Automatic annotation (TrEMBL):
Pfam families: NfeD. One of its GO terms (cellular component) is plasma membrane. Keywords: Membrane, Transmembrane, Transmembrane helix. PANTHER family: INNER MEMBRANE PROTEIN YBBJ (PTHR33507:SF3). This is NfeD family protein. The chain crosses the membrane at residues 12-37, 43-71. Residues 95-147 form the NfeD-like C-terminal domain.
């Protein structure tokens, strides 16, 4: 029964239904992508209501509008970055800068390790014995830069 239904059978409501489904999908899936497809479907619905155009032209219009909407939004957001309320998210090592820790393994030849929580972190700095307190001054990839605390 459902397999015999086509887009034409829903008439003008088809594009509104597609726009609604894409809008709901935007709420469920992370990211900002489906909203632009939903907007394209809504524009096609408005055009189809105003002008009687064949289904193939409606689909082509939807495809073109979708590409334009996604491309335009990507360019806009690349130039107008939205400030984050968690700027260090996914940059865990940077959250340790400015803090003091105890060396777990002595720094020899410029490299040692500190324990933060249940993780050992590679550190670079002046040679120091295990147990010395160090101050994290920076990060290079996932290596913490440290200096001795006096």
């Amino acid at each position: 029964m459902l397999d015999s239904l086509s887009l034409d059978e829903f008439g003008l409501w088809a594009w509104w239904i597609i726009a609604a489904v894409l809008g709901i999908l935007e709420l469920i899936v992370p990211g900002i992508f489906f909203i632009w497809l939903a907007a394209a479907a809504a524009v096609v619905a408005l055009v189809a209501m105003a002008v009687d155009i064949p289904l193939t032209l409606q689909v082509a219009l939807f495809a073109v509008l979708s590409v334009i909407a996604v491309w335009t939004s990507r360019r806009y957001f690349a130039r107008h970055e939205v400030p984050s309320d968690h700027p260090l998210l996914n940059q865990r090592a940077r959250t340790y800068v400015g803090r003091n820790y105890t060396l777990e393994l002595a720094i020899r030849n410029g490299r040692g390790k500190i324990r933060i929580g249940d993780t050992l972190w590679l550190v670079e700095g002046p040679d120091l014995p295990a147990g010395a307190t160090v101050h994290v001054t920076g990060v290079d990839d996932d290596v913490l830069k440290v200096e001795a605390v006096h």
